């Protein structure tokens, strides 16, 4: 089963995306901001990351930059 990490500060949006992707057979992990998202990505090693652009603490671009600068997570496909 493919694992997708959803990073978004809007809980209702994470829930909608989680429901849609779970129904299609994906395993879903979630993070409420970019800082948590980077930690979760390093621990869970998802197959794909879906990330919001505008978030508190760390926006989507900084999240992507942080993940690309880490050899463990640099190759994970990332969609803003």
What would you say about this model in short?
It contains three helices and four strands; from the N terminus they run βαβαβαβ.
H-E string: EHEHEHE
CA distance, first residue to last residue:
22 Å
User: What do the pLDDT scores average to?
Assistant: 97
Question: Largest sheet, order of strands side by side?
Answer: 2-1-3-4
Low-pLDDT regions: none
Structural class per helix/strand content?
Answer: alpha/beta
The rounded Rg comes to 11 Å
Q: Which bin fits the share of residues in helices? A: 40-55%
Helix count from the secondary structure assignment: 3
Count every beta strand, where a strand is a DSSP E run of 2 or more residues: 4
Structural description of this entry:
The chain is an alpha/beta fold and 80 residues long. The chain is built from three helices and four strands. The protein has helices at 11-23, 34-44, 60-68, and strands at residues 3-7, 27-31, 48-51, 78-79. Helix 3 links the parallel strand 3 (48-51) and strand 4 (78-79). The two termini are 22 Å apart.
Provide tags for this entry.
80 residues
Write the layout of secondary structure elements.
Blueprint: E1 3-7, H1 11-23, E2 27-31, H2 34-44, E3 48-51, H3 60-68, E4 78-79
Parallel strand pairs: 1-2, 1-3, 3-4
Helix pairs in contact: 2-3
């Amino acid at each position: 089963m493919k694992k997708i990490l959803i990073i978004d500060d809007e809980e209702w949006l994470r829930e909608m995306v989680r429901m849609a992707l779970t129904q299609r057979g994906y395993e879903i992990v979630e993070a409420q901001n970019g800082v948590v998202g980077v930690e979760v990505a390093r621990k869970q090693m998802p197959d794909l990351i879906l990330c919001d652009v505008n978030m508190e603490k760390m926006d989507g671009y900084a999240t992507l930059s942080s993940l690309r600068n880490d050899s463990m997570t640099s190759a994970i496909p990332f969609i803003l």
